[in-house]
Amino acid sequence: MDFELRKAREKLEREQRERVQRAKDKADRERRAKAEAARRRDALEASHRERRLDAARAQEEAQQKMEEVMQLGKGISFSHMFEALRYDGPGDKIKLPPSSFKELSDEGALDKGPMYFRLSKVRDSVPGARQDNDADEATCCGVLEFTAREGSAELTPHVWNNLFRGDSPDVPLIEVRYVSLPKGTYAKLKPEGVGFSDLPNHRAVLETALRNHATLSENDFVVVNYGQLQYKLKVLELKPASSVSVLETDVEVDIEGPDSVLDNIENQHVLVPLETGKVESGVVEEGKFRYYKFLVDEGMGEKVASRHANIEVKIETDTSGGDTDIYVSRHPLVFPTQHRHEWSSHEMGSKVLILKPRDASLSSGTYSIGVYGFKGTTKYQLSVAIKDVLNGQRIGEQASASSSVDVDSVVCKNCKRYISNRTSLLHEAYCVRHNVVCMHDGCGVVLRKEEATDHVHCNKCGQAFQQREMEKHMKVFHEPLQCPCGVVLEKEDMVQHQSSTCPLRLIVCQFCGDTVQAGGEPLDARDRLRNMCEHESICGSRTAPCDSCGRSVMLKDMDIHVIAVHQKS
């Protein structure tokens, strides 16, 4: 009996403990559920609050951006994203789609004068985060026309290279924003390499290049072309702002010198100063040039022009098997080449070149020397000297005979020299045995018999050379050369072509004063009779008021107008 009661009591106690445990577990579950519900409610409220803050920030940024656009555009709001495309063109004027013209016209931008735009790269960013564009990733430009396809903007190489420096994105996206720029008053530029300051009147060359530009921005690079040469100048400083307009304004330009000469100077078009009377040593590789310049002052120029002195360019080379050529020109031809020069020497080994100015008034000035590596790597020593002509002998005059010809002299039948009649038989016997006369038409040179086999004539031009010089002569003078304009000629004809008829030759325009490419023949026959080139014919068609009567007259007809109308010489 007691056993059954005890067993029933234990069962009751166990059931009570289980009920208490279940109640406790239920209370824990309810507490955890309430805590999770509260956490979720707090997280939802925080998310809603963050969204409201993001929306407020986005609205504030949009409003601030609109205010900036309105401020930069002087009341005109134009900001769009376009795909950037390239097109070949000078300067910094881009092409926009026709829809942009309509929008700008509706905004009244056409009434405010030239239109300028700020271009910046668009990078991938987190949605809702503000996108900042560095100054180095933005540039300014003008607009050429509104003919680009919708959704795209076409950029010139200048704008593209300044905006995408070292980048080549698969789909380049840019933001184009209308801005109002002040007129520039000052600009400081710095050449990327050396040699730009060697160009004659390099400021005028820079001014000509900037005529294709509407704007300038700090840290941009401006490319200046001079013939086939290209120079890059970095914009260091601008006033009165970091981006300015250069249209219809006078800008004071300061050109800063480069930091230092680059190590690989052989591959650059650089003029090394050469003092008269001093020797300059150097090394030139095959197929490359080393350039030098020297100055002939007016005093020395007068002596050279009167032929009482001459200019001697001397180069001495080592005997290692290399060979050089010398090409010399007078500025404005800065860098003489194989087929653009005024004087040249192609002799093998060391050589002396005497410069004879074709015009007596052009003796003084700056001259350029190009040392060309014809074969192998050659060490050389270069010097320039102004040497007086001895005994009153002038350049081109034959020296007077030291003694008069005896009246009883006779002409040797072999060497054609005057020989005394008393020794003529003995001389002729010796001369016939040891000397031989070159029978080539127009030559007649008397040679030692052992030297006769080395004396040869060119089959094309008939000039006489030693056998070892013939290969170089054929390669230099008779190997066909192709001009950049497409004409193929031999050397002498190429020199004449590139100095007088090549459309790519550089000239100083008589109307604008710039160094420009001449172009072809002018369309106007009257301009051809006046020996004008295509550029001068077009440039001279601009009108200017006559100083005497105020009538607008074309520049190329101004001289005729002054003589015919005002009877002035």
From TrEMBL:
Keywords: Ubl conjugation pathway
TRAFD1/XAF1 zinc finger domain boundaries: 532-561
Gene Ontology molecular function: polyubiquitin modification-dependent protein binding
One Gene Ontology biological process: ERAD pathway
Record protein name field: C2H2-type domain-containing protein
Residue ranges of the region described as Disordered: 1-58
Family the entry assigns: Belongs to the UFD1 family.
GO-annotated cellular components: VCP-NPL4-UFD1 AAA ATPase complex
Domain Ubiquitin fusion degradation protein UFD1 N-terminal subdomain: 90-182, 183-258
Origin species: Oryza nivara (Indian wild rice)
Source superkingdom: Eukaryota
